[in-house]
Amino acid sequence: MKVAIMGYGTIGSGVAEVLRVNQDQLQKKVGEPVTLKYVLDIRDSIPEDADKLINDFSIIENDEEIKLVVETMGGIHPAYEFVKSCLEKGKHVVTSNKALVDAFGSKLIGIAKEHHCNFYFEASVGGGIPVIRTIYHNYAGENLTEITGIMNGTTNFILTNMREKGADFDEVLAEAQRLGYAERDPSSDIDGFDTSRKTAILLSMASGNRCRHEDIYTEGIRNISKLDFEYAKELGMTIKLLGSVQQVEDKYFAYVVPMVVPKSDPLFSVDGVFNGIKIVGNCLGTTMLYGMGAGKLPTASAVVSDIIAAVRHQDEFQGIGWSEKMLEIEPMGSNAFTYLLRVEGTCEEIKDDLKEFFLEDSELKPVILNGRTDEFAFITDVMFESDFLDNLKAFEEKTGRRIIHYIRTEKEEN
Amino acid sequence: MKVAIMGYGTIGSGVAEVLRVNQDQLQKKVGEPVTLKYVLDIRDSIPEDADKLINDFSIIENDEEIKLVVETMGGIHPAYEFVKSCLEKGKHVVTSNKALVDAFGSKLIGIAKEHHCNFYFEASVGGGIPVIRTIYHNYAGENLTEITGIMNGTTNFILTNMREKGADFDEVLAEAQRLGYAERDPSSDIDGFDTSRKTAILLSMASGNRCRHEDIYTEGIRNISKLDFEYAKELGMTIKLLGSVQQVEDKYFAYVVPMVVPKSDPLFSVDGVFNGIKIVGNCLGTTMLYGMGAGKLPTASAVVSDIIAAVRHQDEFQGIGWSEKMLEIEPMGSNAFTYLLRVEGTCEEIKDDLKEFFLEDSELKPVILNGRTDEFAFITDVMFESDFLDNLKAFEEKTGRRIIHYIRTEKEEN
Question: A45, A305, A365, B211: which could join B138 in a potential S-S bond, CB 3.0 to 4.6 Å?
Fold first, then answer.
């Protein structure tokens, strides 16, 4: 099969490299050579594959020999127009572009179906972690009740370092930028938008319907501090930025928030730039897929797994994806969490108030760091987020005590 | 599609349950109902699905309506004869029977190919962990340099408890038997044979050629003691029973042994009855798949994922499997490890000997537990196993000091 790569940045050049390095293995497994014919890029020269460089998309579009196009340009335009045009000509398209999949996934899947070719996007979530295909192949018969993941290496690197070094956010972010793990403008990572797009794709895969990342409640990690980690540590827990999707009967819940995670959760041990995606099924129980969620070669490897699928399904639409029907996500307020709550002062005089607003069922177990008297923390009962926010306000008004910070907390499994 | 289940034990009845509980989800995903028609069992009555119970295999064999047969009988005979006969009639077969896959996998895959149907075995390794299909779909383009797994829940439960409770092997085995996590005759688990069969299947998947578990060097966990764990803990490490497959150029290595595992390995945190399978690819880097490796419903869920594949590939042989060609595994002596070595006495008078036989490149860093003088431990340089065993003997002869125990050790990644 002859292929073209559109966009020769980190991922695109990585795909060319994987095709080159693993060509024998690839040919052995799919029964025919996979040959790179064109590289489309706006640049005039590229270090490798220079003989394949073109600047004009119409060459790819009009070359009937090209049966598969890899889209690694990033961004939505003109990626969308190029991909659409390839699919309409019956060329398979493989992408690593989560923004494109989030914005136009269902549309492009529909076009692929109409033209008996495939639109694949394994690399758009979790890099080398085989999550899209696992949901499609292995867990299609499961009622998936939860998918929760650490899906952004930059934020996980920052949080891991904050925990290990007892350092504050700004300090670790600066280091991550120095090491190249964080962008100069880190907003897309640390404000959770990258995770939110991936969460939207997983929700679409799990539900079979379309959802938009704009509809997913999203908080980043800018407000997580050294002290938050000290409390979490004291409780034997840690803090992770999680994208989560949950299904209860026919209702869907989804959010991206930093959460306090207990040791019993397999995501607890997913550290540094690694990603982990936990999948819970009604029969399956809990599984987790762990690996490099980003990076040139791991992501390129996922792109190549899609190329293999395209060769194996050359003449048929395989149907990995979801419908155009819009999914309704339940409002954030209807999620239930426990909360790690940091409160001003000491707990002595406000025990009854804490009980009234946050601890109907359980005893107050205050966590006090090194005998401090300016604040303490505790974990609330399970509460609906809307009730929690109401009670937070009512508590502050009644007691005059400020809530310094709260972080949603996973209940420890017994 | 109409299906039959052969063998209504734990897994077989679990498959019937998953088909019942998730039938709507299943039909939605594969586009047609999957209906259980027969249950073959030697018993005269079964608690559920009693109306489907038959005792005569020929009914399944001769019913043209049955397009798929689930084999959950266990054992090799008559499972092999039944499966063979079904495949020869063009019926897809799905099995959870690792002994069958290990002994006759390539033969049955060949028969399936000849009759344009499929022989699937996702449930034979790692229960609900999607390892077979991940190797086939996602990592087909990778040069897989290593697959190493904790693939037996019983031994992992025992080792986890030895570590956490500081208890000795016999004590924890008895508890595991009381809780139903270990069989009355636990040999297949604790002597490593179960892991060895799974390792053989993974090696066959990775290499594309046939191998037999009898050719894989296998040690169990009977000799692991409380003290071994104390040394491992002191080093910030733990002990796990690992099945491992490695490829270096065109040479294949495989073994099942208890190993000292550092914290940097994702398998370090796989505890209790959970399983974890680490896969390393030349481009992919390190990934790990984690989940319930056994148990009624997780294993049944994996069987159902194969049923889904069979419905999706009704009229074609998909080619998940390996050839009849026999793979040669390199001898155990040609593997290189570091070793945690427990030596009689104190290290003072034998420092030069230790250096001569075990520490060419690095300094001796003895680990001494609570000021003991009857023994100490240390970690050797990387050595070929054959050299190590020679040196062990030479060291004992020269110094008159006994080596109390050694455990192969994974090198800490930096």
Answer: A305
Q: Which residue from A141, A284, A298 is facing B29, i.e. has the nearest CB? A: A141
Q: What SS3 state is found at B280?
A: strand
Q: Walk along chain B (414 residues) and give the pLDDT tens digit of each residue.
A: 999 999 999 999 999 999 999 999 999 999 999 999 999 999 999 999 999 999 999 999 999 999 999 999 999 999 999 999 999 999 999 999 999 999 999 999 999 999 999 999 999 999 999 999 999 999 999 999 999 999 999 999 999 999 999 999 999 999 999 998 899 999 999 999 999 999 999 999 999 999 999 999 999 999 999 999 999 999 999 999 999 999 999 999 999 999 999 999 999 999 999 999 999 999 999 999 999 988 999 999 999 999 999 999 999 999 999 999 999 999 999 999 999 999 999 999 999 999 999 999 899 999 999 999 999 999 999 999 999 999 999 999 999 999 999 999 998 765
Query: What residues of B are annotated to the active site?
Result: 198
B1 touches A: beta carbon within 8 Å: no
CA–CA distance, A292 with B285 (Å, rounded to integer): 7
Q: Which active-site residues of A does the annotation give? A: 198
Pairing of strands A53-54, A237-248: unpaired
CA dihedral A270, B276, B338, B380 (to 10 degrees): 60
Q: Does B302 touch chain A (CB under 8 A)?
A: yes
Residue A268: its chain B contacts at CB < 8 A?
269
This model's pTM is above 0.90? yes
A60 close to A83: Cβ distance less than 8 angstroms: no
Q: How many CB atoms lie within 10 A of CB B238?
A: 23
Interchain CB contacts (distance < 8 Å): A and B:
168
Contact (CB<8Å) A18/B141: yes
**Domains annotated on chain A, with CATH:** 2-127+298-312 (3.40.50.720), 131-292 (3.30.360.10), 333-409 (3.30.70.120)
Neighbours of A358 (CB within 10 A): 24
Tokens coding B177? 């038997």
Q: Say if CB B131 and CB B290 are below 8 A apart.
A: no
User: E strands within B249-307?
Assistant: 251-262, 274-281, 285-292
**Which among A358, A340, A360 is positioned nearest to A408, based on CA atoms?**
A340
For A12-49, b/e burial (b = at least 16 CB within 10 A) is bbbbbbbbebbeebbeebbeeebebbbbbbeeeeeeeb
H helix intervals, B47-190 = 57-62, 79-88, 98-114, 131-133, 153-165, 169-178, 187-190
Using an 8 Å CB-CB cutoff, list chain A residues near B140.
25-26, 29-30, 305, 308
Contacts of A315 (CB under 8 A, 6+ apart): A116
Q: Rounded to whole angstroms, how far apart are CA atoms B235 and A282? A: 39
Helix H or strand E segment including A257? strand A251-262
Angle in degrees, 0-180, between the axes of helices B169-178 and B153-165, rounded to the nearest 10: 120
Cβ within 8 Å, pair A283-B289: no
